[in-house]
Amino acid sequence: MFDNIESLLPQNDLVNGSGKLKVISIGDNEQSLDELNSLLETLGVVSIGRVFAVLRKINPATYIGKGKLTELSEMAVRLGAGAVVVDAELSPKQLANLEKSVGKPALDRPGVIIEIFSRHARTREAKNQVALARLQYLMPRLAHFWTHFERQDGGSTGSRGMGEKQIEVDRRLIKRQIHILNGRLKNIECERKIQRTNRKGILKVALVGYTNAGKSTLLNALTNSNVNAEDKLFATLDASVRALDPHSHPPVVAIDTVGFISRLPPSLIASFRSTLEELVESDLLVHVVDVSSPYAKQQFETTETILKDLNVGAKPRMVVLNKADLLTGANTRNWSKLICPGAMAISALDKADVSKLRETILSHFRCKMESWEILLPYSESKIESQLFVYGNVEVNRHMDKGTFYRVRIEERWARKLGLEKFKL
After folding, report:
1. Which pLDDT tens digit goes with each residue over 358-417?
2. What contacts 24+ positions apart, CB below 8 Å, involve 96-99?
């Protein structure tokens, strides 16, 4: 039954000619509400009003106090809003009480983000991951959300609820589906491990950053690919792997990863663990920042915090200030340098900038390569072929007892190929 539920958003509360849901947003600061509005725009929802609620103490029953509840209710009626959206994670009790007090359907920030992920999931893995996160979100909120589901399934608006017995039946169904999805994701994770094993000898560069920082556009530019890249939040949910330079030795691939956002729902982080494993396996992180955003500094810091939480904070990394072409005026450009001193400012749309970044990445790996001079017997043809794949052969000359090589290669590969015994 839950596979037929199209949206966490109320669908029959459309109140304007455009067919878009109009909502009132509640939050404690301008920046966070701006981001919430961007999330809502991604869903085609229009925020027509804001209520600022700086809370010294959270109301355990309704999240906000009586005064703000009154202000919210009056604004919703005056502006003709169809729902209210809170820029925080609410408990099931708070959601239900808030909806009852205001007389409008209510949704919280995690629900909005999960809804976006649900709409943007394309691959088998992403769909299963999002479905799991969605069910984990719904489980404790089932009684509250059923009123929305009844409307979507054509139920009577006067009948608000199914009864405790039916809700328990559905809880069992959700638990069963969660078990099935966990099994599917374990199988997918095994496939991922095999793929990562096959790429074990390849150097990996992971593009990370806040959502809509331009990672997919940059991946396309760096690798001459055509990965889906759109100017909207969470357009990419799957890790895309492309060769950075087909002529590079050793091979280097660039990996586009799911974008981050402040207060990303824990269920989504847990569900995307196999995708995020790409960060753990990477040799270099390229942190992409949208330097044109007025909140670039905060987005940079949020991403850095998440990387630490994922235990990849110590990974080698470089910071790239993307969308530098959108900066105007000397003051703006000077301010951008304060985001991360020493970062490289580029535009993913500028071929010269992209070439410079690609060369910087390749140079990062080249500087770790050591020069070796070896005499390889003719019988070691397998090692010879791997020298050309994983090393940069500068000189090769046939001799009486074998082939002389001067090669630059990483120490780990020199050790793995056993070059020490052929060293001159």
Report:
1. 999 999 988 888 899 999 998 888 898 888 888 889 899 999 889 999 999 888 888 888
2. 96/143, 96/144, 97/61, 97/62, 98/62, 98/63, 98/64, 98/69, 99/144
pLDDT grade for 151, boundaries at 50, 70 and 90: very low
**C-alpha of 277 from chain center:** 12
The residues that bridge with 205 in the sheet, in sequence order, are 254, 284
| Vertex 181: Cα angle to 179 and 186 (nearest 5) | 95
Amino acid 40 reads L
Q: Are 293 and 339 in contact (CB under 8 A)?
A: no
Instruction: Please report the pLDDT score of residue 230 as a whole number.
Output: 59
The side-by-side arrangement of strands in the sheet containing 403-410 is 369-376, 403-410, 391-398
Distance CA 375, CA 422 (A): 6
Q: Which residue spans within 34-112 are E strands per DSSP?
A: 46-52, 83-86, 106-108
What is the model's pLDDT at position 156?
45
Write down how long the chain is.
424
- Contact (CB, 8 A) for 207 and 358: no
Measured CA to CA, the distance from residue 104 to residue 26 in angstroms comes to 13
- Sorting pLDDT into bands at 50, 70 and 90, what band is 124? confident
Instruction: Look at residues 257, 258, 246 and name the one whose alpha carbon lies nearest to residue 202.
Output: 246
Cβ neighbours of residue 56 under 8 Å, at least 6 residues apart? Answer: none
Alpha helices in 367-419 (DSSP H): 381-390, 411-416
**CA 268 to CA 266: how far, in whole Å?**
5
Say how far apart CA 192 and CA 197 lie, in whole Å.
Answer: 9
Q: State pTM to two decimals.
A: 0.80
Asked whether the predicted pLDDT for residue 351 surpasses 60, the reply is: yes
Helices and strands (DSSP H and E) totals, the chain:
15, 13
> Environment class of residue 374 by beta-carbon count within 10 Å: exposed (0-12), middle (13-18) or buried (19+)?
buried
Closest CA to 347 of 207, 204, 222: 222
